[in-house]
């Protein structure tokens, strides 16, 4: 069986294999131990699953992993499936750790060794002993995975966790009687965000439950890009286990994490933001639509610091068995798995002091919530946009970490600028989406100037100033603008993300544009100084963009390489990210710069302050959601009507317009305006679209005949006469008389 069906990506396209339309991971519980000596992370991850709305019931998992027909439009949030178990919630104020008798998670128990024996193990292929006993009629959970050595996959016995009994319905339904494990997990997943602490505690207890003892087991197969899991005889996602534990180890050369040495020559490891994201750190669902929450326990040597993209600053405790320190992080906002970030090393913290000018304004009571009629439209999570205290918090709690040798430069630059940049971002965009921020100066081999994740920013040492403590703000421009760029990603790229990864410009274009606005605010520049700085930045970026356009392949320059197929996925939910593995694209800035210039143009049309006001309203409306840049039909109609007012349009522009928006395949309102544009500018290549419209959309094409005739163009008049001859016998008599008067 080919588990990937007809999805056959080019060599530089990244496959997203997860069948997210069949089943979604709603929560991950990770238990990781960092081994610096062998440069691996031994780990288990427990997946809490929910069947999706795109239900597959009988066919094999690979039967539809090809380019299907997703709707590809609109927004997506972290909401659940259309059906939920209607169980009431009992308040769980205090849950004792009822893990007595639970098996140790890591490793394979002696009794399981034969069953989970790996029968094929190469760099890219690995299977459990009984995988071949399954068949295509069994439902397959497909996860994105590579460079991982999997030792065991098992279903958990959730009914053994006594604390979960509080989620049982008062009257047991038929659904509960048939599958109590699934019913309990659905109740857990559906607990409201107001009970998130109890919810996470239950997730933690369930993650340590023993394997199910029903006499059956889970079988797995790993290839280059995916991990596939089956339970023999189970043919639907509804009947598939809803809690699955995977035990595995990363590889020293795995693409998701980088083992290296910091500037103090001490070993460290961090998630590098590679094109393959986190699939070489833990098996997961990589498509952005697979938004989930997570909690993680990380064991690391006691002299190390563990930083993650979690919501609260972790306070480590000692592991009595290994003398490692244990760090715990979590998130309550569902986000794509690609936002999970980890860094472990021998870094030092420098306490950030808030400048006196900001001291009294950390919480500014003059900037409070405004009732503008816009309310949250995302799935349920503890949202800062609904908290008055968050709206008044100009500077969120923040920390900075650095190798010892760079502490002074970090103090001069990052520590000095960070609170100013945070306050400026708040002034421009409003409430900070995340409650805290860590900044880490990463090793010299980091391949970009910065990378933003929830609650943490990686900064390159290249942005640090080369000056000294007495040099003032000189030399801080690169550091300040980069900090502002990464902070802007909290709004555009993180709390609002692209539904299709090929639309990087939604994140990078907006962050580049906002970088200038926030940095000018942080510098407290005058209007004239701001304008001069904006103009200089625009000139430098135009030179860079012009150079890239002249020296790169055209297919890498397109902001939306999937064109009208942007956002489309297969029936199972799998897809590919075009050119994601192309090394040339990694270092290009076209998506930054084209997006930036588009936004600057719009700002010039409506005014700078009005455009900033738009940013704030956009964030308030779409936070917690995924978006696409496709135009709706009404927006396309408006665009074409505005273009009809232009006296001239080049053939190249018309060709690009037709290709980009696939206008011949839009609804009749759009096609009508497109035909008018074709006629006005005598775009002969699209006369076929006009003929098709006149023949098949007779109710809307009457006056198009007149436009063809009034141009006094022989070819256009011939089109009108030919179409009339084809349809005049079936035309409405009134319409026929009107058309004949125009044409004949």
From TrEMBL:
The lineage of its organism: Eukaryota, Metazoa, Chordata, Craniata, Vertebrata. InterPro entries: Aminopeptidase_N-like_N_sf (IPR042097), AOPep (IPR033577), ARM-type_fold (IPR016024), Peptidase_M1_C (IPR015211), Peptidase_M1_dom (IPR014782), Peptidase_M4/M1_CTD_sf (IPR027268). Residues 58-78 are annotated as: Disordered. This is Aminopeptidase O (putative). Gene3D superfamilies: Neutral Protease Domain 2 (1.10.390.10), tricorn interacting facor f3 domain (2.60.40.1730). It comes from the Eukaryota. Residues 609-743 form the Peptidase M1 leukotriene A4 hydrolase/aminopeptidase C-terminal domain. GO terms for cellular component: nucleolus. GO terms for molecular function: metalloaminopeptidase activity; zinc ion binding. It holds the Pfam family Leuk-A4-hydro_C.
